[in-house]
Amino acid sequence: MRRNGFTLLELLVALAVFGLLLVGLMHVTQYGLRALHTQMRILGRSEDLDAVDRALRRMIAMMDPGDSLAPPPFAGSRDKVQFVTVLPDVAAGLPVRRVEARLLVDSSHRLVLRWRPWIHAVRLRPVPPPVETELLHGVQGLELAFWHPGSGWVGSWRNEDLPALIRIRVLFPPGDVRHWPDIVAAPALRRP
């Protein structure tokens, strides 16, 4: 005759099965959390790259094309470029105005934009120091190229007009998981 209830052995087997299910569930949860953290970290990096990409494209498109009296204030080499443009609307909360901008990678391996207000006149006071805005950190270098319709891509630009296209390639250190395709943009598509 059997009594109602469970034997000690049945309880121990049930607890062991329940424990195995909890351990499996814990591992699956930890794996899911690690995957979520990795995805958030990668998305955060790509959002930074996307914001920098949009800002650089807009600044190139808004470059000062010059006029019949003065050529465009533009100079470029393989690792830096200097031009007059309009800052993106979000830069330092300033109203839209023309600035002298310089894009380069500094000695701290940061992609920086150095800028100051553009005054197309003789300055009576000393030139104010530029404002430095970090766009990306952990950058190995910057490769710039300029499209000349007769010569193709060239490594420096000191002509009387703007290049037809500007290519910006940001180089990251070996082993860095960030990948950024080249930015190719046409200057002065829109006038400020």
Integer average pLDDT: 82
Helix/strand class: alpha+beta
DSSP helical segment count: 1
Shape: elongated
Write out the strand line-up for the largest beta sheet, numbering strands in chain order: 1-2-3-4-5
Question: In total, how many beta strands?
Answer: 9
Helix content: 25-40%
Uncertain segments: none
Distance between the termini: 96 Å
**CA gyration radius, whole angstroms:** 28 Å
**Topology as H/E string?**
HEEEEEEEEE
Total domain modules: 1
The largest pleated sheet is described as: 5 strands, antiparallel
Task: Determine the oligomeric state from the structure.
Answer: single chain
Strand content bin? 25-35%
Overview of this structure, please?
By secondary structure, the chain is an alpha+beta fold. It has one domain. The chain has 1 helix and 9 strands. The protein has one helix spanning 8-61; strands at residues 74-76, 80-86, 98-105, 110-117, 131-137, 141-148, 152-154, 165-171, 183-185. It has a 5-stranded antiparallel β-sheet, with helices on one face. A 4-stranded antiparallel β-sheet has the order 7-6-8-9, covered by helices on one side. Strand 1 (74-76) and strand 2 form a beta hairpin. The radius of gyration is 28 Å and the shape is elongated.
